[in-house]
Amino acid sequence: MNRTELAAHLKDRAAQARADLVGIAAVARFDGVPADQDPRTIFPECRSVIVLGRRILRGALRGVEEGTSFGSTYGTFGYSWLEDNFLSQTTYDVTCHIETLGFEAVPLFGYPQEGMPTGRPVAPGKPAPNVILDVAYAAQAAGLGEPGVGGFFITPRFGTRQRFALILTDADLEADPVFTEHICGNCGACFKACPFGAISADRLKPAGIPGAERQTAVVDNTICARCPNGAMRANGRGSAVDRIAAACGRACTVRLEEAGKCSNRFAQPFRKRAPWAVDLFQRPLADAPATAANAAANAADSGCGRNLDTIGQGR
Question: pTM for the complete prediction?
């Protein structure tokens, strides 16, 4: 098979392994990234980066949207199990097939880099382990979507609702075009939905692949870590907070679907009732005597957020 046929063959194989999204980036698209995010630091002979995605079921968000079920819906089927079981099985199966064809393949979780443990360099010129790729950068380089202004990675099929994993291989594969379209309309729904002002609309930073960068808001992760409105953290993922099911992320889902920007469409709208919100003491905001800003400011003093390895709300 030539490089075009091999790329098409592996995409078919990924679909058989239940990947909902698959894109390929040439490793040259990572030129200039820091060494601790460069696939060639892990696999110097890497020629292609394959990005695999599996959807987050819209129904996995339902319990959080209603405020009645967190861990057994989104926390498992939309977050930890999806990454650690379903997507990892897809990644392993595709990796096995690549190696059956005689090419080396390195499977990688799409975990964020923030707060992940690091060791000491094993030799001069090598970065400290563990090297972790920027999965959003890789997914855009592989043609799958773009970083939105609220810090969510958005695809034209599922919006914010997907998880990614990576495969590095020495197979020379035809790459997909870099994603250059605009899905995020900078509507500000995510800013407005955050009860604690953690997303800074007036502080932006560039994100994404050079030539197709997007301006994304600065997000205060320390506030998000205390948020009981659907923000989550799971073991082994450093300090990054998952916000897809949080008030901001669900507001983004609503707006993308209303605007017809997701090809995965449904008979009924996602939001059927007025959204709920609670303060850091888990009181409905309409009844809380303190403002959200005061609650955020006093969270550490009052013990909120000390147990951060919880799903959605404290257990």
Answer: 0.90
